Automatic annotation (TrEMBL):
Leader peptide range in chain numbering: none
Keywords: Isomerase, Magnesium, Metal-binding, Phosphoprotein
Cofactor(s) it depends on: Mg(2+)
Name of the protein in question: Phosphoglucomutase
NCBIfam families (UniProt xref): pgm
Matching Pfam families: PGM_PMM_I, PGM_PMM_II, PGM_PMM_III, PGM_PMM_IV
EC supergroup of this enzyme: isomerase
CDD domains, A to Z: PGM_like3
Species, as recorded: Dyella flagellata
PANTHER family in the record: PHOSPHOGLUCOMUTASE 2B-RELATED (PTHR45745:SF1), PHOSPHOMANNOMUTASE 45A (PTHR45745)
Length: 549
């Protein structure tokens, strides 16, 4: 058991833990970031800028500066199509949206906002960008998603998706970050802005039916006929997130037996159970955060949830309860490449370096190529866009895949499609994903895996990110000879921002979080739980030595 687990983990969030939303919004408007303080500067992690208004790390000035930087980037790159913008249900998302619109319209950018003020999942924004850009060579669209993903209710987030529809690559985010910080240093000199009411009335702002268009197109990626005819009983918990109003139209449009556990939206997320570290976090891959849905597992054939911007999935199978994300990702790879006959035989499998090695074994058995990259879904965007990747996934329950016809669906993570795929495979195979996973491990070996998170400040995170193979003194890992040490990903030779150490029957990887003040140690063994614990213990010693040095 992880000694860092809070005593309140898995229990309903107490009233005293809930954020004071009016105070949070006041802090957003009133606090001014100090650009000489590193924690208060604009900083794009693995997926955009995130922070908390109380800590002066996500405030009005941040959003105004980032949005102006995006406008400047668009101008430099001659991106002249509409910008699609969506928000999630975090309290800071609406004021950040309003701040962004003030700058976008003042810069004469055509903006597509959600019809009726509906919340917008990340995949719906990516889908809209790609739909608009299809067969276009110029006048391309791009997008912004206002979301801190599954982060706590106090947080806000802001990310940019260029015309390929996926998360912006490092060279793009570095440029935007640098320009935004220069604007902060100049006290917003150079930021164009108008009032929100004036911006909202502008003819440059048009409503777009993200929900209707996304739901209607789902038939081209999920086989609803097999789900409907099988009578599979499903449940979904939107966790009060951006897709909360998407599920009923999906059930009605495709005639499937889908129960919605809750459609409540509450910016305090007071309905959640507390996550591992004593925080409220809408993480569908966390057993602590998913207690409500886990408790319903025996009432449905399969159930699922998505995080706040609906780009991550969690699957609860009747046979096993909540599936660890690596388990379900492995099942998806095996299922998809056997049941998508229109995909080219050259389509590869994409995974991050900290995802399960069972995916490697499944991919090898399928005769497919493995494309292994650093953490961050941006590394899959181009491959999904051009169809070279049939499927891309990261260990934190993020994935996307191609349409039935082998063409691009989204180039950002999509939590809704993998959730629905769990119902499709249950219907077609007559086994739920937990049972399919048991079949896989029976044939390919059973992995034992875990992740340990621990607090780390900015200096410690920076030290860990620069760990190199040369610094590793050990020749063995948990009694086995070390066969490889990586600080770059095999698929694209990009730095992994940490280190991965591999032995014949196990491995560990250590890296700092891109979005929180923690570091993460991932470990996996194909021998036993005891072997896994030995791997994690030795990994902890290596990381502690690095942080102390």
């Amino acid at each position: 058991m992880n000694p860092n687990v809070d005593a309140r983990a898995g229990k309903p969030a107490p009233q005293a833990m809930l954020v004071d939303v009016p105070k949070l919004l006041d802090a957003y408007a009133e606090l001014r970031p100090d650009p000489t303080e590193p924690a208060q500067r604009v900083s794009f992690g693995t997926s955009g800028h995130r922070g908390c208004s109380f800590e002066a790390s996500f405030n009005e000035w941040h959003v105004l500066a980032i949005t102006q930087a995006i406008c400047d980037y668009r101008r430099q790159k001659h991106i002249t199509g509409p910008l699609y913008i969506g928000i999630d249900t975090h309290a800071l998302s609406q004021p950040a949206f309003e701040s962004a619109l003030e700058v976008l319209v003042a810069n004469e950018v055509a903006v597509a906002i959600s019809a009726g003020g509906e919340y917008t999942p990340t995949p719906a924004v990516s889908h809209a960008i790609l739909t608009y850009n299809r067969n276009r060579l110029d006048g391309l669209a791009d997008g912004i998603v206002v979301t801190p993903s599954h982060n706590p209710p106090t947080d806000g987030g802001f990310k940019y998706n260029p015309p390929n529809g996926g998360p912006a690559e490092t060279d793009v985010t570095s440029w935007i970050q640098q320009r935004a910080n220069a604007l902060l240093e100049s006290r917003l000199d150079g930021v164009k802005r108008m009032s929100y009411p004036q911006a909202r009335r502008s003819s440059l702002v048009q409503e777009y039916d993200f929900l209707g268009r996304y739901v209607e197109d789902l038939k081209n990626i999920i086989d609803f006929n097999v789900i409907r005819s099988s009578g599979v009983r499903m449940a979904v918990d939107p966790l009060g997130g951006a897709g909360v109003h998407y599920w009923q139209p999906i059930a009605q449009r495709y005639g499937i037996d889908l129960s919605i556990v809750s459609d409540s939206v509450d910016p305090t997320f007071g309905f959640m159970t507390v996550d591992w570290d004593g925080k409220i976090r809408m993480d569908p891959s966390s057993q602590y955060a998913m207690q409500r849905l886990i408790g319903l597992k025996d009432r449905y054939d399969v159930a699922f949830a998505c995080d706040t911007d609906h780009d991550r999935h969690g699957v609860v199978a009747r046979s096993v309860g909540l599936m660890p994300s690596n388990h379900y990702l492995s099942v998806m790879v095996d299922y998809l490449f056997r049941h998508r006959p229109q995909w080219t035989d050259k389509a590869s499998v994409g995974k991050t370096v900290v995802s399960s090695s069972l995916i490697d074994r499944v991919t090898e058995r399928l005769g497919r190529r493995l494309y292994e990259v650093p953490v961050g879904f941006k590394w899959f965007a181009d491959g999904l866009f051009n169809g070279v990747l049939g499927f891309g996934c990261e260990e934190s329950a993020g994935a996307s895949m191609l349409r039935h016809d082998g063409k691009v669906w989204t180039t950002d993570k999509d939590g809704i499609v993998p959730a629905l795929l769990a119902a499709e495979m249950t219907a077609r195979m007559g086994k739920d994903p937990g049972e399919l996973y048991a079949d896989l491990t029976g044939a390919l070996g059973k992995p034992y895996s875990s992740r340990v998170d621990a607090a780390a400040n900015a200096q410690q995170k920076a030290r860990l990110a620069k760990l190199s193979p040369e610094q590793l003194q050990s020749k063995e890992l948990a009694g086995e000879k070390i066969v490889g040490v990586l600080d770059r990903a095999p698929g694209n030779n990009a730095p992994i921002g940490g280190i991965k150490v591999m032995a014949e029957n196990g491995w560990f990887a250590a890296r700092p979080s891109g979005t929180e003040e923690i570091y993460k140690i991932y470990g996996e063994s194909f021998r036993s739980e005891e072997h896994l614990q030995a791997i994690l213990q030795e990994a902890q010693g290596i990381v502690d030595a690095a942080l102390a040095g």
